[in-house]
């Protein structure tokens, strides 16, 4: 797992948890609400996902400003936050490369 000591590391960690929460919301909580009549699942998981979404956007903005990302990279990272499994793709394709460019602990 990535380090919390750098903005890219924090973005990777928050992105991981935000992606997990989105998949749990779509794959578990929503079926529980609509198929089992248990709306509390969406309330609880939805709140957690909302908080993680806001943290992801804040971490993405911090990384973009700190590392002087081009607008395209910033936009791709932001768009990924609204797609199921998007943060995982961004981590694999963009953030690991950005971390290598910046060096360890950046």
What does this structure look like?
This protein has 106 residues and is mostly helical. It has one domain. 79% of the residues lie in helices and 0% in strands. It is built from four helices and no strands. Helix 3 packs antiparallel against helix 4 (86-102). The longest helix has 30 residues, at 7-36. The radius of gyration is 15 Å and the shape is elongated. The model has no long low-confidence stretch (mean pLDDT 91).
Topology (elements, then pairings):
Elements lengths: L6 H30 L3 H27 L4 H10 L5 H17 L4
Short description:
The protein is mainly α and 106 residues long. It has 4 helices and no strands.
List segments where confidence is low: pLDDT < 50 over at least 5 consecutive residues: none
Number of helices: 4
Summing up helix and strand content along with how strands pair, one would put the structural category as: mainly alpha
Report mean pLDDT, rounded to a whole number: 91
Q: Could you tell me the radius of gyration in angstroms?
A: 15 Å
Number of strands: 0
Compute the separation of the termini in Å: 15 Å
Helical percentage: over 70%
- Tell me the number of structural domains: 1
Q: What is the beta-strand fraction? A: under 5%
Overall shape: it is elongated
The description of the largest β-sheet is:
none
């Amino acid at each position: 797992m990535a380090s919390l000591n750098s903005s890219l590391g924090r973005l990777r960690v928050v992105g991981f948890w935000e992606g997990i929460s989105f998949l749990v919301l779509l794959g578990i909580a929503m079926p529980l609400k609509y198929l089992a009549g248990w709306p509390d699942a969406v309330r609880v998981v939805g709140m957690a996902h909302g908080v993680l979404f806001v943290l992801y956007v804040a971490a993405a903005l911090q990384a973009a400003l700190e590392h002087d990302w081009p607008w395209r990279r910033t936009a791709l990272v932001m768009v990924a936050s609204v797609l199921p499994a998007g943060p995982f793709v961004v981590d694999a394709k963009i953030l690991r490369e950005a971390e290598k460019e910046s060096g360890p602990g950046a």
